[in-house]
Amino acid sequence: GQVIPERRFVEAINREPYQYQTGDFPTEWEAWIRKKRNDPPTIEEILKNENYREEMKQKIKDVTEKEKLLQAKEYKEGLVAEPVQTRVKGHASAPYYGKSEPSQDPTSTASTFQPGSWMPPGSSSARNK
């Protein structure tokens, strides 16, 4: 009466079993081990699929390069506006937003308060008040 499920596993040859990670085995073997397919893969099938993946990577690379060239051409001809490059120095809620150094004056941004800092007399950034 009781059906014992088939156990599928791979014996580690060059490494300890705990050193294997996802992606170390070909996808076809992983599918067989996890019972997503009934028959184990053949060497020819694995090589064919690997070649297909490499071809797809190369095609994707080619298409990406073509797109970059086309986009650069469109920017040059003025057909498309180039994206604006913004440089963010800080966040508005930061105590020193847009400032490179603390000042003697207190600052308040959003719901925060930053007291002024003490500057020694005669320093280049100290102001006479």
Automatic annotation (TrEMBL):
Region of interest: Disordered: 84-129
UniProt biased composition (Polar residues): 101-115
Pfam families: NDUFA12 (PF05071)
InterPro entries in the record: ComplexI_NDUFA12, NDUFA12
A Gene Ontology BP annotation from the UniProt entry: mitochondrial respiratory chain complex I assembly
Domain of life, per lineage: Eukaryota
GO CC field: mitochondrion; respiratory chain complex I
Family the entry assigns: Belongs to the complex I NDUFA12 subunit family.
Protein name: NDUF2 factor
